[in-house]
Amino acid sequence: MMNRTALPSETLVRGVPGRFRGPFARWPRTADAVLAAAMLLAAVFVEEGPGDALRFHPITDVPVPVLLLYAVAGAALYWRRSEPVAVVAVALVAWGPTLGSNYSTLGGIVIVALYSVGRYAADTRRSRLCTAAAIAAAIAALVIDGLLNPVPWGEIGFGALVMSGAWYIGRRLRMRAQRAVRLREEQAAETRRIVAEERTHIARELHDVVAHRVSMMTVQAGAARMVAADDPQEALEAMAAVEQAGRQALDELRHLLGVLRPDADRDRLGPQPRLADLQQLVEQVREAGLDVAFTGGVDAALPARVELSAYRIVQEALTNVLKHSGPRTHTEVRLSCESGGLTIEVLDDGRGAAVQSVSAGAHGGVPGHGIVGMRERALLLGGSLEAGPRPGGGFRLAARLPTGGEPA
C-alpha cells in the first residue's frame, strides 16, 4: 500500500476524528476568568456543614476582611498560566488567616493553584524548589486546619492526597504536551529532510537529462564543423538540430531553478526512463507477484522531465503496493493525456498499512519517499497529486502533470 507520509500542511483523511479541544484550550483567558469567578463564588457562599454536607450562607455573614482575602485569592487564578508559582503563593497566604474558622473555604482555590503549578510552571531548579515548598505549605495548612476544627486524620490524609495529586496530574499533562510538541517538531524536521533529499534526487535526474542533450549537441556540432566546407546544407541541418537540442536543454534547466544539488554523484550520464519503458516496468512488477493491469497510453512526444517524473511516480506507486499490500494485490495503472496534461492513476484493492518508510524504486530504481517524493515531483512540474483510501477498500493515487513545453 502507498506510503502515507504527507507534509504537515496536508491532511490524509483516514476516518480518525480530530482531537477534541475544550474551552480551556480554545479560549484560555476567558475560561480562566470564568474559573476564577466560579471558585470565588464557591468560597464566599459555600461552607461545610455537619456530616460533610455543603450548605449556603448569605454574603452578609462573611466579614469584610475575609471577603477581601477571598477576592484576592480568586482573582489570582486569572494569572494561573503565566504566573503559577505566584498564584499558589497568594492562595496560601490568603488561606492562612482563615485556618480553623468557619471561613476556611479556600482549599478549592489552593487545589486549582497546585494543579496550575504542575501544568504551567517552568522546569527550572528554582521553580522546582518553589513547587516543593508550595506543596509542603499546602499540606501543612491542611493539617493545621484539621487540628483546629478538629477533623479526623483520615480526612486530613485524603485532603493531602488530593492536593498533591492535583499537582501531579498537572505535571503529567505538561510532560505529555511537551512530548507532543517534540514529536511534531521531529516529524516536521523529518518531512523537511525527506523533501530536501527527494529534490536532490529529482535534480540529479533532470541534470542527467540535460547532460545527455548537451552531449548530443556536442556531437552534432562536431559533425557540422567537419562537413561545413564540403556540404553546407548538411552542416546547416546539423546546426538546426543543435539549436533544437539547446532549446530543449534550456527548457529542462529552467525547471531546475530553486532545486539545490550536491556536487557528488555527477557522473551518471545517459538517458533516463521514459513512458515507453512503463510496459517493461509493469512486466517486472508482475514477475515479482503483483497483479497489474496497464491501460491507456500517450502517443504524442512529451518533455523529458514529464516522462521521467511520470515513470518515477508509477514506479514508486507500484513499489509501495508491493511492499505494503503484498503480492497478488490487484492493481490498475491508467495513463491518459488530454487538455495539456498527463493524468496518472494507480489503484489497488489491498488493505495495506499506514507505514512511514523509505521505499526503494522497483528493481534498482532511485530511492523515493512515498507520497512525499511523488507529490514533490508533481509540484516541481506545476502539477498536483492526490492520494487516499478508496471507499470500497484499497488505495488510490492520482497525479496530473502539465505537458507544456517542447517535447523531447
Give your account of this protein's structure:
It is a single chain. The protein is α+β, with helices and mostly antiparallel strands and 408 residues long. It has eleven helices and nine strands. A five-stranded mixed β-sheet has the order 3-4-5-9-8, with helices on one face. The protein has a two-stranded antiparallel sheet with strand order 1-2. Strands 6-7 form a two-stranded antiparallel ribbon. Helix 2 (28-45) packs antiparallel against helix 3 (64-76). It starts with 22 loop residues before the first helix and ends in a 6-residue tail after the last strand. The model is unreliable at 1-18, 263-269 and 352-368 (pLDDT under 50).
Question: Which key phrases capture this entry?
Answer:
alpha+beta, disordered N terminus, elongated, 5-stranded mixed beta sheet, single chain, two-stranded antiparallel ribbon, 408 residues
Percent of residues in helices: 55-70%
How many beta-strand segments?
9
Given the helix and strand composition, which structural class is it? Answer: alpha+beta
Ends apart, CA distance between termini: 33 Å
Morphology:
elongated
Which strands sit side by side, in order, in the main sheet?
A: 3-4-5-9-8
SSE pattern: HHEEHHHHHHHEHEEEEHEE
Parts with pLDDT < 50 across at least 5 consecutive residues: 1-18, 263-269, 352-368
Overall residue-averaged pLDDT value: 78
DSSP strand content: 5-15%
**Number of helical elements:** 11
Radius of gyration: 35 Å
Largest sheet: 5 strands, mixed
